[in-house]
Amino acid sequence: MPFFAYKGRDGRGQLVQGVLEGADSGTVAGQLFSIGVTPLDISPSAAPQQAGPGLLERLRQHKITDTEVMLFSRQMNTLLKAGVPIMGALKGLEASTANTSFARVIREIRESLDSGRELSASIARHPGVFNLFYISMVRVGELTGKLEEVFLRLFNHIDFEKFMRDQVRAATRYPTFVVTAMAIALIIINIFVIPAFAKVYAGFKAELPTITKALIAFSNFMVSYWPALLAMVVVAVLGFRYYVNTAAGRLAWDEFRLRIPIAGGIILKATLARFARSFALAIRSGIPAVQALTMVAQSVDNEHVARKIETMRENVERGESVLRAAAATSVFTPLVLQMVAVGEETGALDDLMSEIADMYQREVEYDLKNLAAQIEPILVIALGGMVLVLALGVFLPIWDLGQAALSRK
User: Fold this and answer.
1) Which helix or strand (DSSP H or E) is residue 385 part of?
2) Could you give the angle at which helices 147-188 and 349-369 cross, rounded to 10 degrees?
3) If 0-12 CB within 10 Å is exposed, 13-18 middle and 19+ buried, where does residue 242 land?
4) 113 contacts 86 by C-beta, under 8 angstroms
5) Would you say 26 and 2 are in contact if contact means Cβ atoms under 8 Å apart?
6) Is the pTM for the entire model greater than 0.85?
């Protein structure tokens, strides 16, 4: 997505500026309002250029994981509930955190608080660690005076999101492993096995079947040009990673993932479960639906679904109901839409969205349990086809030679 430079004023009236990522200027304005910043100017900009750390510092750095942010939220909830001041809580967490990178982030948050900034504004200075949803929820906690409750909700939310991401990885791990194993076996056969049989057949000086000629020709090609083939694979992998890191590439790849047979349905359900849980949490915390959809779109780990949520936000902003906006995306089932309708009619949309998240979670867990049974027939057919081709190519000449020898007797 494109970047936009903004200027605005925070709750204290102080001028703030920076660069945010969003689908358009309206989305960026919604992000700013959600963290308590009134935008004055928003204009397209290049990606923010940050001075990277030195080589020695990069080697010493540790990646900050979602688990550490989750534990940070839980510990903040416990300390604030016990009556420990925010500054004291952060100082204690800084001293007890084993990850030096995260300890540095906590120290910078504490120093920012000490200079007069609010907690939400302080953690917003670390977008690589705390996403927009997290920042907005902390802002809500500050405004409502329920910061410890918000940290508990964030802990449960991050725990749920981590679980669903693990489910998505599990959905793609098994077929990826099997396909990779088949590719490695095919390479070994073509480089080591078929050349050995080719030498035997060359000694017979007999006419070989067409399928055997094709296998030998392909094997000779791999043996002769394997350095070029290896280089092509490396270039393809690097090119794919570069393309996926672009806005258009990420959108195309995320849309393709949802269309993968069997696994794509599981990924979509897991993504929608994260959306429903995040939206329910935002609504329950008192955030308006338009701002909640903006926040959720930024936190969903699928660009295609994020675009659908942005479309929902635009429709709700024009005055349509959440039900009509959700139906227009064509990603929710009729049962889910019916639950959304009931939630809007009864004023319990947050509870119904939580029910939707639980329903999708149960479906994902069920689908994963049956994933092997669904994929096995496809893999058996693929393996059977590969074995059949190899068996015919390798053993047909031997069979023909044996028949010829018997006929001579």
Assistant:
1) helix 371-408
2) 20
3) exposed
4) yes
5) no
6) no
Give the length of the chain. Answer: 409
CA 211, distance to chain mean position in Å, is: 43
Tokens of 289: 């639906």
pLDDT higher at 236 or 382? 236
CA-based nearest residue to 135, from 119, 148, 111: 119
Q: Characterise 57 by phi-psi region: left (phi > 0), alpha (psi -120 to 50), beta (else).
A: alpha
SS3 146: coil
From the CB of residue 244, how many other CB atoms can be counted at a distance below 10 Å? 14
3-state secondary structure of 37: coil
Mean pLDDT across 283-300: 82
Are the C-beta atoms of 283 and 155 separated by less than 8 Å?
A: no
Alpha-carbon dihedral 395, 401, 405, 408, rounded to 10 degrees: 140
No. of helices (H) and no. of strands (E), the chain: 18, 3
SS3 176: helix
Residues 6 or more apart in contact with residue 49 via CB below 8 angstroms: none
> Residues 33-54: what's their mean pLDDT?
66
DSSP character at residue 189: I
